[in-house]
Amino acid sequence: MAKLFNITINTPDGLYLDEDIQIATFKTSQGYKGIMANATEFTAAIIPSKLILKYGDNTEKIYYVGTGIIHFKDNYMSIIINEISLTPLQKIKFEENEEAKKYSIIEQFSIKRNLIK
Q1: Which of 38, 73, 79, 95 has most Cβ atoms within 10 angstroms of its Cβ?
Q2: Which CATH class is domain 5-86?
């Protein structure tokens, strides 16, 4: 059986995840890294990317994360990030921006209509 370690993920909203996993793969400012149990102590800045967690039963879960900090020591990984989602963050932001554009177009139309009157 694969060795596991504990991971906790915290966001501004509080604790998001607290589980035992086999491997964590993430992107830092210096490239992609993978951490397994009994790795050496590690601290880095996470940049917006995928966070891939592999569990003891060989299943994987992909999260999309914003910026943050990761620390690993004594088979405990702590991640503090500004946002996390199961869907790509850029897609969410893009959809929000499209929604904002719709309202600004409506507002522009309303202003132009009022100017004509």
Answers
A1: 79
A2: mainly beta
Give 10-residue mean pLDDT values along the chain (117 residues): 92 96 93 94 92 95 94 96 86 51 56 63
Tokens found for residue 103: 């309202």
* 66: Cβ contacts below 8 Å, ≥ 6 apart: 48, 81, 82, 83, 84, 89
Tell me the residue ranges of DSSP E strands in the chain: 5-11, 14-21, 23-28, 31-36, 42-46, 49-54, 60-65, 68-73, 76-81, 84-85
Centroid of chain to Cα 62: 9
| Token pair recorded at residue 61 | 């879960």
Residue-level pLDDT at 94 = 45
pTM for the model:
0.74
Q: Cβ(55)–Cβ(23) under 8 Å?
A: no
